[in-house]
């Protein structure tokens, strides 16, 4: 598949996984991610892979655990309530250092919530979700193309660090149809996993475990995990900066909200307002350094989320009071309009700037990507 | 000097963490013996449960993984689908298999998943100090049924072999005990039959083994064996509940 295809984000995520060499998929139906598992049900038999509609989200994540332990590239997906059910398994995957890709097409919560777009699973995704001191890498796409690209990358990251990787989308990204190109070569060669359980033919046996009953061993293992996470924080931060160089206000948003913010920048530009955007692509590791640097240049941040305010905490921790961090969010399935965000920007501007005229006098028209 | 009998090579020579009179050591030794006899150490993958037997990999020198409480049939499914030509078995207790993991058990059986489950039923949660299990006998005292299990308060003992016999996808189901050399030999034959079922790709097999837990039954080792023979088998009769070789196809 090298040409452009019109696909939903859900289908693109599934197809990208197949291109990345994923041949095992286990899932359970839940809206708004159903197209993903439907695509897998169709495609896996075509490529000699395995698709199982599991009896529960819990069974699905543990089937994934089994295939990961056996050395295969494997994926599961769900939406918020189902991801909550998978948390035990994600903790076990992290504790057993098993590579696995998990797609969360977020919907409104808490509880059964609704099936509208949401970013209210941010805490769950980046702070752990399950029990214990662990992290999953979390990647947040903002277009169907990027969703496909990040799913493809997620498999490499999972294998490189022997760690679960979550791709955090939302109902809008999952359901939206956009052109997508699978330009990367389909993966056919994979690094050897010497630790996998394959039958101990001619070698010492392998054990996949997260149980360390001897006093001190678990702490030692946790410290090792922390060193691994530190390496990930040093090497795997991803973000995009738009129009931030001359901006006084920087928007911070990921995923669907980042798309809306790009529209805000376009709308603000003719009015003479210079607004920038920092879009975290990796939510863990979080682009702390980039935000810290940006806080030296801008006068205020405005964080936009489809939640009551979750990522904003990490922005504040990164900025450490160097400049004000404002927040605008919609929750419970609400999606911010560009108009509402722009109004919020206009509220903040008098607190940080002399106004648009002064900026226009600088003779620097806003650059919009 | 002629060696007449020696421990199986697959059984790691180490001290045991199991309590005196516990059944796990016997069952795990049987598995090791079969692996040796059939020469399948390099072709076998085992799953250790949550509970006393989590450290099964301390005794069995084969590739093994832990699985969370109740999840071994799902994990075994994921492994078996990647390695369809390897022998994949899960080793599970009654809380793991019949309570928290009942859904995984039934659905793995119903898919006809080509795995073997070794189900040790000792009618109690051992690792957590002896609480009531789904398989606890009526009248049996445990920490959470201190007056004895009553059907009105706690429900009835769950008969797994009988339950799974109604599931079309299951292929071989047998309940055995390990209360005498004769019964231990029968248990070994049953495990062999379970493994054979899988190796011939006949689908889901489960061997239920009635096991003693003297510490949480508050009995001596010998008394525990007698209790299985005289009391436990009245609720859980021994025998074959399903056999693909005897079902006309």
Summarize this entry quickly.
Chain A is of the alpha/beta class and 369 residues long.
Provide mean pLDDT of chain A, rounded: 94
Oligomer: heterodimer
Global shape of chain A: globular
Rg estimate of chain B, integer Å:
17 Å
Instruction: Assign the CATH superfamily of chain B.
Output: Thiamin diphosphate (ThDP)-binding fold, Pyr/PP domains
Shape of chain B: globular
Q: What would you call the structural class of chain A?
A: alpha/beta
Total of helices of chain B: 9
How far from one another are the termini of chain A? 28 Å
Q: Can you tell me the residue ranges of chain B where pLDDT is under 50 for at least 5 consecutive residues? A: none
Average pLDDT of chain B works out at 97
As for the CATH topology of chain B, it is: Rossmann fold
Structural class of chain B: alpha/beta
CATH homologous superfamily designation of the largest domain in chain A = Thiamin diphosphate (ThDP)-binding fold, Pyr/PP domains
Strand order of the largest sheet of chain A: 3-2-4-5-7-6-13
Explain this structure.
The complex is a heterodimer of chains A (369) and B (249). Chain A is built from 13 helices and 15 strands. Chain A is of the alpha/beta class. In chain A, the strands form three sheets. Chain A has a seven-stranded mixed β-sheet, with helices on both faces. A five-stranded mixed β-sheet of chain A has the order 10-12-11-14-15, sandwiched between helices. A two-stranded antiparallel ribbon of chain A has the order 1-8. In chain A, helix 9 crosses helix 12 (338-352). Chain A is globular, with a radius of gyration of 21 Å. Chain A starts with a strand and ends in an 8-residue tail after the last helix. In chain A, 55% of the residues are buried. The model of chain A is unreliable at 362-369 (pLDDT under 50). In chain B, strands 2-1-3-4-8-7-9 form a seven-stranded mixed β-sheet, sandwiched between helices. With 249 residues, chain B is of the alpha/beta class. Helices cover 36% and strands 18% of the residues of chain B. Chain B has one domain: Rossmann fold (3-Layer(aba) Sandwich). Chain B is globular, with a radius of gyration of 17 Å. In chain B, strand 5 and strand 6 (131-132) form a beta hairpin. In chain B, helix 3 crosses helix 4 (102-110). Chains A and B meet through helix 3, helix 4 and strand 9 of A and strand 1, strand 2, helix 2 and helix 4 of B.
């Amino acid at each position: 598949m090298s040409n452009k295809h019109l696909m939903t984000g859900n289908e693109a995520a599934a197809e990208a996984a197949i291109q990345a060499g994923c041949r095992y998929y286990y899932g359970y139906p839940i809206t708004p991610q159903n197209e993903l598992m439907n695509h897998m049900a169709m495609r896996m038999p075509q490529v000699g892979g395995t698709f199982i509609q599991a009896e529960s989200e819990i069974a699905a994540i543990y089937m994934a655990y089994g295939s990961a332990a056996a050395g295969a590239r494997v994926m599961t997906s769900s939406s918020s309530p189902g991801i909550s059910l998978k948390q035990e398994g994600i903790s076990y995957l992290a504790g057993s250092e098993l590579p696995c890709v998990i797609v969360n097409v977020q919907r409104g919560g808490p509880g059964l919530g609704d099936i509208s777009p949401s970013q209210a699973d941010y805490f769950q995704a980046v702070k752990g979700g399950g029990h214990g001191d662990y992290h999953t890498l979390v990647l947040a796409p903002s277009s169907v193309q990027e969703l496909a690209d990040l799913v493809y990358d997620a498999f490499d990251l999972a294998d490189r660090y022997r760690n679960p990787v979550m791709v955090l989308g939302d109902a809008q990204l999952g359901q939206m149809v956009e052109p997508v190109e699978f330009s990367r070569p389909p993966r056919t060669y994979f690094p050897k996993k010497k630790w996998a359980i394959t039958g101990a033919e001619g070698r010492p046996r392998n054990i996949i475990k997260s149980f360390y009953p001897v006093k001190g061993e678990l702490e030692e293992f946790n410290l090792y995990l922390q060193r691994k996470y530190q390496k990930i924080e040093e090497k795997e931060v991803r973000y995009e900066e738009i129009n931030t160089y001359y901006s006084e206000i920087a928007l911070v948003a990921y995923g669907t909200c980042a798309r809306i913010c790009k529209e805000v920048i376009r709308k603000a530009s003719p009015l003479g307002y210079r607004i920038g955007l920092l879009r975290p692509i990796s939510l863990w590791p979080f682009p702390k350094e980039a935000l810290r640097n940006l806080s030296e240049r801008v006068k205020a941040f405005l964080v936009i989320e489809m939640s009551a305010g979750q990522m904003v905490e990490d922005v504040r921790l990164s900025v450490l009071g160097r400049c004000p961090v404002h927040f605008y969010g919609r929750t419970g399935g609400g999606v911010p309009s560009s108009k509402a965000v722009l109004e919020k920007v206009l509220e903040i501007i008098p607190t940080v700037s002399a106004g648009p005229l002064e900026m226009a006098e600088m003779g620097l028209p806003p650059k919009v990507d | 000097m002629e060696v007449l009998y020696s421990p199986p090579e697959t059984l790691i020579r180490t001290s045991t963490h199991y309590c005196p009179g516990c059944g796990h050591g016997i069952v795990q030794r049987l598995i090791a013996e079969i692996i040796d006899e059939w020469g399948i150490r390099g072709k076998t993958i085992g799953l250790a449960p949550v509970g006393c037997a989590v450290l099964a990999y301390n005794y069995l020198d084969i590739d093994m993984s832990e699985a969370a409480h109740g999840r071994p049939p799902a994990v075994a499914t994921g492994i078996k689908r990647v390695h369809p030509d390897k022998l994949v078995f899960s080793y599970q207790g009654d809380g793991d298999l019949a309570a928290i993991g009942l859904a995984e058990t039934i659905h793995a059986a119903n898919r006809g998943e080509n795995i073997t489950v070794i189900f040790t039923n000792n009618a109690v949660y051992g690792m957590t100090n002896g609480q009531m299990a789904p398989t606890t006998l009526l009248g049996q005292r445990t920490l959470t049924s201190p007056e004895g299990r009553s059907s009105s308060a706690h429900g009835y003992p769950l008969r797994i072999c009988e339950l799974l016999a109604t599931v079309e996808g299951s292929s071989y189901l047998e309940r055995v005990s390990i209360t005498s050399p004769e019964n231990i030999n029968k248990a070994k034959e049953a495990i062999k039959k379970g493994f054979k079922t899988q190796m011939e790709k006949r689908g889901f097999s489960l061997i239920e083994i009635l096991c003693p837990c003297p510490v949480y039954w508050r009995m001596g080792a010998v008394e525990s064996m007698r209790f299985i023979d005289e009391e436990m088998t009245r609720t859980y009769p021994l025998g074959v509940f399903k056999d693909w070789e005897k079902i006309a196809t």
